[in-house]
Design a protein that fits this description.
The chain has 234 residues and is an alpha/beta fold. The chain has two domains: 195 residues, PAC-like subunit (Rossmann fold, 3-Layer(aba) Sandwich); 36 residues. The protein is built from six helices and eleven strands. The chain has a nine-stranded mixed sheet, sandwiched between helices.
């Protein structure tokens, strides 16, 4: 495993997210890198997972990529690769990145499962009273009881810098763009990014529409198959 940083960056705010519940973190960081003026400045190379890349708009997206937004001094860790089983190793590389850049703050984004059918709550955890005071004026609840897993949990257990965990509630295992839109809205307020989250809501609505149509077609196919069986056995 290796951390590669090709640019000298000082005192950034680091935003990190890895695939989790509803893929909320990965959707959020992808949206940020696409809608802010970001440059690719490095990557985290992981030998313990199967090789995987994505191609988007004729560009290769590496498994774990580092993007930098100079205007807001944001360093974004964007992952499309599952890291199950190596969370502690990944967290050590993220902590190395924090140390190397002398990051002033780290923001972790993740989804949490909801027992509520609505599943639209937004929660935060922080080890900083200054951040907590800022959160009080926003539509945000303190995360008082929950189980956190994965890279976020590993980082939370070791972090000494100012830390903010942003957790969006979701009740689906499918990609939840609507929950990611709520995260973008919170980050926009917190960091003053001037970024529009509404396209993500439209994307969620389109995804849900397509999913409903697919389910309807599947139901029709099953019904037709059952009808054929009845006719066959007469």
């Amino acid at each position: 495993m290796e951390l590669i940083l090709k640019k000298s960056i000082k005192s950034p705010i680091i935003i990190e997210a890895f695939p989790g519940v509803g893929l909320i973190g990965s959707i959020t960081t992808e949206y940020l890198t696409n809608h802010l003026k970001c440059e690719e400045v490095g990557q985290i190379i992981v030998d313990d997972v199967p090789p995987l890349i994505a191609i988007h708009s004729e560009k290769i997206i590496k498994p774990i990529t580092l993007f930098y937004n100079k205007k807001n001094n944001l360093l974004i860790v964007h992952s499309i690769s599952p890291v199950r089983g190596i969370e502690w190793k990944i967290s050590e590389l993220v902590l190395d990145l924090i140390k190397k850049t002398q990051a002033k703050q780290i923001i972790s984004i993740d989804g949490i499962s909801s027992r509520n059918s609505e599943g639209e709550g937004m929660f935060y955890y922080t080890n900083s009273q200054k951040i907590a005071n800022k959160m009080k004026g926003m539509k945000f609840n303190v995360l008082k009881e929950s189980i956190i897993m994965g890279v976020t949990a590993a980082i939370m257990s070791k972090i000494k810098k100012d830390f903010l965990g942003v957790f969006a509630e979701t009740h689906i295992n499918l990609p939840d763009s609507r929950a990611a839109a709520r995260v973008i809205e919170i980050l926009d307020q917190y960091l003053g990014l001037n970024i529009d989250y509404k396209p993500l809501i439209k994307k969620a609505e389109m995804f849900e529409k397509n999913l409903n149509e697919l389910m309807e077609e599947s139901k029709k196919a099953v019904d037709l198959q059952d009808e054929k069986k009845v006719n066959y056995f007469g």
